[in-house]
């Protein structure tokens, strides 16, 4: 199942391998690798087999390829376990050949070359909303949970040592604590690898996952502090040192995050200005992400936190600023790198085991460690969740807690830390390495294996794969609004207040700073992609139609086809037809055949109406619901991700827009006023207060702006309203259209238009148009046209005195509004 | 608690309110203070203008809540709908369902949509709701198609309107307890 996506990953993996192999090989000279002795060149060699040149790289690449092809077993075997086992085999082979382990996982390589891209990948694809809304709980688990684990394991082992369960070791309390701290951290790589295949519900996932990322801050601190303590020796530790340790935690954690944020800002700024060099802007992300890791590492701050926050903070702006192709490139590249690194890490973890140098067996130590790690994990999780549940709206159930405890996997980070211990100070380094490896294998293989059955057996709430029904979506959004309203009414600051406040702050300041102006203006920046998508669609449609062979027009001349494509691009028929075709309905095809030769769009309008399926409505809804909180479908699977589905729906909207623009454009040209789509406001209900001031600008029937921002932040709303207006006026490029044409209403006015207005069959003058809506009473009336006071239409500009008055009126407006509506 | 008690006595029917809604005395007092603060002209009841004075509400598309004139008990009752569901509260089998039960929460929402109070959400009402919640660039056509689709999904007896039962059925999977609860109202 995962074969296809893993193929590029293996190419990537083998590339990585070839790069790191010289370093990883540890310099052990292999007998078969040595150059052959001087040979007398007696003839010119045509072809020589230089096996020894490529031996190591070849073997490893081959091995990873073989390892990856074990897709058959993947359904019940977690991939990480498989990889470790493959690593065992590979290690066995190499060891058999060399009698020494040349392919060890050297900590430096691991930490500098294999880990950063995985963390960058997780940060970049992190579901932000979910993450930040659960941040409190995650932090509690990460900090307190990890400290508890470290302390408890260390002290218990020490107690057992004193009790004599481990025989004779040269070890002291501090070293036990050090060992405990390196084993305490839940490993993000392992967690992703296992949880990815078990789709648990989002809260559970984000808790475990977030914890695994954020506990690095704690781990680094604990490790360094205890390392320093061990060097100092037990006598010199006093309160001062301990306080320094605690302070260093804050410095490390916040410093690391800060560096991440700084680099995220850098990346966003960079992508803001690299519109011209799109080919390489994708690369900047990786480079800067890596730099953030190294910078934090250099300053001995938490590097994982740095990369995580770099990814988390920059994703939104980068995706907005960059060209769509670059975004796709970045996504795929990240996945490739991350997958490759993960594969390599696990294989090397397996390989490293086959090394007689490091194996020191001490039954008591090892077994007790395993036991304590498991037990204390459960205890910690249960206790902390119990505390957290008292403050949660919906408590975390017992079953979820069990899965969370079970998901406390240790992985390569622990091994890396163990392997970087200083053996002069820590005599039992090999024992620790052995134990760490065993713990890692146990958790990854055994717990990984049993995770899926456990989840099924316990009936953990899974992520429901079904798409929400329309009414659910509408209601979800409605709830958010209602909750916000309730909070305001009851005057207390609730969770929603923070979210809204942050959103407002972000919208006004941060996006201005970090996003490209174009991206900012059309927040639905996807509009700019549609031309490309539409083109692609047109081509796709034609190829698809050829396959079906049932569309006669394809036999006609090129001219018609060109027309057809152009028409389709604007009419948005394609996606619907595609889906129609898929369902085998042929009814629409004949219609298309008939209408092809002419560039008539009316028929397609009917097609559109008829083809309004879930597809359109759902995506439309999803796209256009007010932006207070966007629902994210989180994508955390390493291998399974798709381009943002919402592009399709906005594409259709755009196509409709373009179609109707074309219509109005065409009919305006012909002097026939088209059937206008009048802004239907809910004004029939006199009590229905709306802060919306619909601005209908000359072309776009659909582009009426609900400038709801006017009442509250008039500056901002005006800006966006004005700029979008400008966009509308520019894109058509058909020159200034005489607004006087507009109000000819062919369609009978809707019933809720009052009689007075129904009588106006003549266009109100421009001045009147502008004045009409602004008196408080008329706010509720349906006035078909309002022209934006920001419009750069020359007609309007000519009304100089009117402009002054209008600007005078507008500040009055908010206060008026407040009085009259609620 | 002395001041709470004395304030409590000032509030008419405080005891009944607490019983009905499940708010604690401290909550009732707090809500009463808020009510008084909102009622700027000291009318004794809240009219829509008072809600208009809350400036954050201006940015909220859902305003129908604040339509009618509200006296204090109704004010409390509305807010009581948003209390988190209290699993531990003993349920007297004879008394009506808790005001913040899932069913009542849904009913509240239903009434928001159903403005003419005929027990069904007609297509027009749905259109109105959608209109307030959807931002610019959505044409009338699109709105109608969404409304049509929505009704189609939920309408089981094909009367082109959503009754309360159909509404409830369609919201089965939604985690109402979570989505319609405000923490500090516990």
Describe the structure in brief:
Chain A contains 33 helices and two strands. With 822 residues, chain A is mostly helical.
Outline type of chain A:
globular
What's the overall average pLDDT of chain B, rounded? 72
Task: Briefly note the structural class of the backbone of chain B.
Answer: mainly alpha
Major interchain interface with per-chain residue totals: A-B, 77 and 68 residues
Q: Secondary-structure element sequence of chain B?
A: HHHHHHEHHEHH
What structural class do you assign from the helix and strand content of chain A? Answer: mainly alpha
Radius of gyration of chain B: 19 Å
Sheet with the most strands, sense and barrel status of chain B: 2 strands, antiparallel
Radius of gyration of chain A: 33 Å
- DSSP strand count of chain A: 2
Q: Which outline of chain B best applies?
A: globular
Strand order of the largest sheet of chain B: 1-2
Instruction: Please give the order of strands in the largest beta sheet of chain A.
Output: 1-2
Low-confidence stretches of chain A: 1-37, 524-533, 553-614, 627-635, 641-647, 671-822
Query: Strand content of the residues of chain B, in percent?
Result: under 5%
* Mean pLDDT score of chain A: 66
Walk me through the structure.
Chain A: It comes from Electrophorus electricus (Electric eel). Chain A: Belongs to the monovalent cation:proton antiporter 1 (CPA1) transporter (TC 2.A.36) family. Chain A: Residues 684-693 have a biased composition (Basic and acidic residues). Chain A: Residues 64-457 form the Cation/H+ exchanger transmembrane domain. The complex is a heterodimer of chains A (822) and B (186). Chain A has helices at residues 3-24, 51-68, 79-98, 107-124, 128-133, 135-162, 173-184, 188-195, 202-232, 239-273, 278-298, 303-321, 324-353, 363-389, 398-406, 412-419, 429-458, 470-490, 495-514, 517-521, 527-548, 558-571, 573-582, 587-595, 602-610, 614-624, 646-669, 709-712, 714-732, 755-759, 766-771, 794-798, 800-820; strands spanning 694-695, 705-706. Chain A is mostly helical. Chain B is mainly alpha-helical. Helix content of chain B is 51%, strand content 3%. Chain B has ten helices and two strands. A two-stranded antiparallel ribbon of chain B has the order 1-2. In chain B, helix 1 crosses helix 3 (25-38) and helix 7 (123-133) packs across helix 8. In chain B, 39% of the residues are buried. Classes of the chains: A mainly alpha (822), B mainly alpha (186). At the A-B interface, helix 18, helix 26, helix 27, strand 2 and helix 28 of A face helix 3, helix 4, helix 7, helix 8 and helix 10 of B.
């Amino acid at each position: 199942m995962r074969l296809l996506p893993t193929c590029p990953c293996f190419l990537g993996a083998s590339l990585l391998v070839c790069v790191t192999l010289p370093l990883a090989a540890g310099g052990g000279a292999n007998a078969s690798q040595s150059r052959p002795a001087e040979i007398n060149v007696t003839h010119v060699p045509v072809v020589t087999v230089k096996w020894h040149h490529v031996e190591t790289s070849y073997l490893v690449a081959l091995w990873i390829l073989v390892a990856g092809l074990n897709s058959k077993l993947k359904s019940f075997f977690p991939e990480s376990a498989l990889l470790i086992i493959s690593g065992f085999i590979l290690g066995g082979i190499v060891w058999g050949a060399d009698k020494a382990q040349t392919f060890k996982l050297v900590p430096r390589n691991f930490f500098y070359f294999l880990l950063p891209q995985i963390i960058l990948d997780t940060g970049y694809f992190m579901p932000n909303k979910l993450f930040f809304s659960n941040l409190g709980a995650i932090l509690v688990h990460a900090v307190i949970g990890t400290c508890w684990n470290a302390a408890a394991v260390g002290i218990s082992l020490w107690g057992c040592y004193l009790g004599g369960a481990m025989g004779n070791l040269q070890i002291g309390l501090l070293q036990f604590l050090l060992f405990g701290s390196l084993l305490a951290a839940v490993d993000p790589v392992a967690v992703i690898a296992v949880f990815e295949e078990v789709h648990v519900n989002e809260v559970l996932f984000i808790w475990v996952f977030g914890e695994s990322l954020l506990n690095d801050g704690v781990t680094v601190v604990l490790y360094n502090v205890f390392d320093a303590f061990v060097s100092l020796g037990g006598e010199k530790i006093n309160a001062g040192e301990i306080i320094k340790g605690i302070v260093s935690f804050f410095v490390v954690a916040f410093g690391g995050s800060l560096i991440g944020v700084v680099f995220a800002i850098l990346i966003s700024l960079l992508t803001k200005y690299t519109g011209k060099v799109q080919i390489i802007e994708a690369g900047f992300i990786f480079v800067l992400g890596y730099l953030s890791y190294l910078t934090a590492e250099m300053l001995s701050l938490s590097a994982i936190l740095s990369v995580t926050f770099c990814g988390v903070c920059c994703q939104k702006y980068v995706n907005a600023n960059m060209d769509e192709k670059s975004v796709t490139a970045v996504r795929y590249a990240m996945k490739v790198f991350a997958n490759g690194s993960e594969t390599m890490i696990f294989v090397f973890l397996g390989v490293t085991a086959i090394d007689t140098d490091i194996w020191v067996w001490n039954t008591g130590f090892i077994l007790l460690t395993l036991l304590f790690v498991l037990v204390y994990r459960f205890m910690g999780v249960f206790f902390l969740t119990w505390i957290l549940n008292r403050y949660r709206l919906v408590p975390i159930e017992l079953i979820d807690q069990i899965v969370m405890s079970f998901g406390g996997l240790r992985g390569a980070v622990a091994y890396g830390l163990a392997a970087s211990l200083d053996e002069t100070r820590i005599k039992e380094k090999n024992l620790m390495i052995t134990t760490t490896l065993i713990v890692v294998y146990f958790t990854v293989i055994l717990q990984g294996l049993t995770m899926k059955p456990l989840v099924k057996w316990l009936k953990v709430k899974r992520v429901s794969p079904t798409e929400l029904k329309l009414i659910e979506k509408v209601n979800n959004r409605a709830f958010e609004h209602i909750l916000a309203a309730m909070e305001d009414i009851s005057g207390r600051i609730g969770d929603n207040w923070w979210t809204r406040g942050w959103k407002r702050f972000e919208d006004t300041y941060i996006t201005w700073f970090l996003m490209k102006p174009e991206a900012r203006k059309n927040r639905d920046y996807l509009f700019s992609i549609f031309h490309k998508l539409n083109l692609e669609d047109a081509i796709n449609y034609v190829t698809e139609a050829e396959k079906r062979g049932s569309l006669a027009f394809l036999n006609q001349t090129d001219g018609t086809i060109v027309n057809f494509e152009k028409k389709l691009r604007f009419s948005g028929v394609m996606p619907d037809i595609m889906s129609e075709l898929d369902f085998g309905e042929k009814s629409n095809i004949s219609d298309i055949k008939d209408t092809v030769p002419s560039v008539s769009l009316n028929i397609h309008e009917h097609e559109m109406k008829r083809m309004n399926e879930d597809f359109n409505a759902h995506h439309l809804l999803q796209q256009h619901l007010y932006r207070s909180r966007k629902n994210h479908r989180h994508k955390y699977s390493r291998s399974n991700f798709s381009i943002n589905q919402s592009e399709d729906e906005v594409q259709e909207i755009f196509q409709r827009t373009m179609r109707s623009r074309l219509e109005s454009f065409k009919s305006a040209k012909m002097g026939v006023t088209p059937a206008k789509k009048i802004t239907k406001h809910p004004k029939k209900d006199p009590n229905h207060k709306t802060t919306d001031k619909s601005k209908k600008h000359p072309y776009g029937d659909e582009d009426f702006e609900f400038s709801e921002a006017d009442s509250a932040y008039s500056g901002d709303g005006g800006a966006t309203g004005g700029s979008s207006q400008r966009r509308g006026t520019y894109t058509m490029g058909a020159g200034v259209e005489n607004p006087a044409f507009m109000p000819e209403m062919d369609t009978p006015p809707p019933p809720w238009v009052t009689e007075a207005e129904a009588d106006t069959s003549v266009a109100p003058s421009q001045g009147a148009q502008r004045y009409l809506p602004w008196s408080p009473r008329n706010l509720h009336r349906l006035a078909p046209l309002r022209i934006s006071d920001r419009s750069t239409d020359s007609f309007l500009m000519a009304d100089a005195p009117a402009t002054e008055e209008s600007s005078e009126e507008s500040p009055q407006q908010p206060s008026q509004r407040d009085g009259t509506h609620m | 608690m002395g001041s709470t008690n004395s304030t409590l006595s000032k509030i008419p029917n405080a005891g009944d309110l607490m019983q009905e809604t499940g708010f604690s005395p401290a909550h009732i007092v707090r809500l009463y203070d808020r009510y008084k603060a909102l009622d700027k002209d000291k009318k004794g009841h809240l009219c829509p203008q008072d809600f208009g004075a809350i400036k954050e509400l201006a940015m909220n598309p859902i305003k129908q809540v604040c339509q009618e004139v509200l006296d204090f008990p109704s004010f409390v009752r509305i807010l009581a709908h948003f209390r988190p569901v209290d699993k531990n509260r003993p349920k007297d089998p004879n008394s009506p369902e808790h005001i913040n039960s899932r069913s009542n929460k849904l009913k509240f929402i239903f009434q928001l949509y159903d403005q003419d109070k005929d027990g069904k959400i007609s297509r027009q009402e749905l259109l109105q709701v959608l209109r307030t919640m959807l931002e610019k660039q959505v044409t009338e056509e699109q709105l109608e198609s969404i409304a049509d689709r929505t009704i189609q999904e939920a309408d089981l007896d094909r009367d082109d309107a959503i009754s309360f039962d159909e509404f409830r059925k369609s919201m089965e999977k939604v985690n109402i307890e979570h989505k319609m609860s405000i923490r500090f109202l516990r």
